[in-house]
Write the structure tokens for this entry.
Amino acid sequence: MRIVRLANFVTPRSGGLRTALEELGAGYTAAGHDVVLVVPGDRPGHRETRAGLVVTVPGPVVPATGGYRVITARRPLVRLLDDLKPDRLEVSDRTTLRWTGGWARSRGVRSAMVSHESLDGLLRLFTPRLPGIGGAVRDPGGPPAPFIRTLTDRLNLATAGSFDVVICTTDWASAEFRRLGVPNLVRVPLGVDLTRFAPSRRDPALRRTLAGPSEHLLVHCSRLSPEKRPDQPILALRELRRRGVPAVLVVAGDGPRRRALEKLAGGLPVRFLGHVADRDEVARLLAGADVAIASGPVETFGLAALEALAAGTPVVVSAHSALPEVIGDAGIAVQGGPEAYADAIERLLARDEEDRRTAARRQATRFGWPSSAAGFLQAHELPVPPELPVFIGDRQ
């Protein structure tokens, strides 16, 4: 079967979405399917990868996103899709590419929309726009304004009506569809590379370059954009240092808020690494950290947090996101701001190191890419190879 996948907001520096696209595509390919991924770029291109053929089509840069592009030209994309003749269509963009569900239906092609973000959460985060570091944002906790709920419901019903199946990766992500009684909703978790991200990747020499022998190493791996709330780890570090806790922070990632964050971190022991392209280097960084911080309040899964757990590092996360159901008891979910994050970090540091690292790794082993690929194939109503563990609906 030929599975054609469409995705916007993907660049060579993308994080979780690019990883998910690559790993799931590799799983489809290993299962014997012909896989094509179509993404935007600055010029047309084709390249073969372990995840199948990647086709790049021209797409403009979205302002103030740090380089993200989108496919906006419909007619060329329709011609491309007609030429590719997919048996299944998988779309990872609930906004600008939603119309492709109609194209698939008109051609008799089964289609799936993968929900990588919460519209309800994003609208509540940015509306109304309030002053704050890294952009005008607010925490998404509490009941939404009526107009937000109305708009979210309208868009989500349109999405569900355009595709044969809507795939969500967590219960938290599926909640906005469940409340509407959407019948074509399935839940399939993403996974983590348990070989690359492992406690054995701990590199004492790397750690010595990042923290002193008596210092606690904190890590934040994320795109530096407003919805990720990258200010929270910095403010939490400030609070820890005020309390006399000898902690340092390493920030791996880049984005439109980096300059503002560097200014916010002035006078604090914070090192900005920028985008780290080498995944093995990321694995070594996470394995050497004492605590990772994933502060995004609208994360629908949180691959970076799961990678930290796989590396044996506990995680402090936002309680407003889907991450509490991903991290289980291998981390702490925070309701408040910097003081609450500092409290959670201190509580994790107070745990026996071997116990907290063992718990982190044990939680991560519940999420593997083979199981995730099998679940996605089942959602596509495609056969699942017998060697793949199947997941849909509830964790194995």
Summary: Residues 128-137, 392-396 have pLDDT under 50 and may be disordered. The domain at 199-364 is CATH 3.40.50.2000 (Rossmann fold).
